Amino acid sequence: MTTGSRKEGDFPWWLLLAATIAAFLMYRIVADQLYSRVLATLSRGIGVTIFVTLVAFAMAMLAGLLLALGSMSRFLLIRQVTRFYVEIIRGVPMMVLLLYVAFVLAPALVTAWNWLTSLLGLEPARTRDFSLMWRAIIALTIGYSAFLSEVFRAGLQSIDPGQIEAAESLGLNGWQRFRHIVFPQAIRTIMPPLGNDFVAMIKDSSLVSVLGVYDITQAGKITAAGNFRYFETYNVVALIYLIMTVGLSLLLRRLETRMRRNDR
């Protein structure tokens, strides 16, 4: 018990070292005009990275929750279809999924849309009108929905069945049981892995640069190709991602600690 307490209370020397490195790089950005120009160029990609991450993760959470409910359905067909989707998607690398959605699924969707519009007499669409950024968002949504479904499923199944039976005896319907009994308790189990997946999506959002989407990574590639200062450029790229991911991880850790204290 003493050992565990000491480990939990250890001073975060790693955070001090990371903060020192970040402070040094921030000083260089302020003092060095080259670093300042690089940061000014990369800052235009920060908004795209944040937008892609937030939209894709919100859509993935919704899809993941529906998949989790489907995997727990009393209907065998729904359970099997859900399991097929989750296992197949989880087995495909995110880069491959991104390229597949961008260059296979998106044109197929446009073709299907044009077939529908031809029946309705509407204007056909062109594949190039399908934004690359939205193709990337759809790919991230599909990829992460499979992982988040397992997070939601584990959280929902952690609830004591006796509580659900008690809610049924009180006359609560399925939606009321989910809203008032199951989900408020499951969210405490779901939050830590959900936060980890959100941090992971911030990092995986850099893959959208493969499609030419002007995020932080793409802005860094273009900047480095123009000024040939790869060291300085990718230092700033790494610093931006580290500030976003480490900062968010610390906030999530504090939230998790507060939730544990409230449970006591």
Notes on the protein architecture:
The chain starts with a helix and ends with a helix. The chain is about 85% helix and about 0% strand. It has one domain (about 45-264): MetI-like (MetI-like fold, Orthogonal Bundle). Residues about 1-5 have low confidence and may be disordered. It has about 260 residues and is mainly α. The chain has helices at about 1-10, 15-30, 35-70, 75-90, 95-120, 130-155, 160-170, 175-205, 215-225, 230-264. It contains 10 helices and no strands. Helix 3 packs antiparallel against helix 9 (about 215-225) and helix 7 (about 160-170) runs antiparallel to helix 8.
What's this model, at a glance?
The protein has a single domain (45-263), classed as MetI-like (MetI-like fold). Helices cover 83% and strands 0% of the residues. It has helices spanning 2-8, 13-31, 33-71, 76-90, 94-120, 132-157, 161-169, 174-204, 216-227, 230-263.
Count of DSSP helices?
10
| Percent of residues in beta strands | under 5%
Low-confidence runs of at least 5 consecutive residues? 1-6
**Helix percentage range:** over 70%
User: How far is it from the N-terminal to the C-terminal residue, by CA?
Assistant: 18 Å
- Biggest sheet: strands, sense, closure? none
Number of strands: 0
Shape: flat
Cα-based radius of gyration, to the nearest Å: 23 Å
Tell me the structural class. mainly alpha
Q: How many discrete structural domains?
A: 1
**In CATH's first tier, which class applies?**
Mainly Alpha
Per CATH, the architecture is Orthogonal Bundle
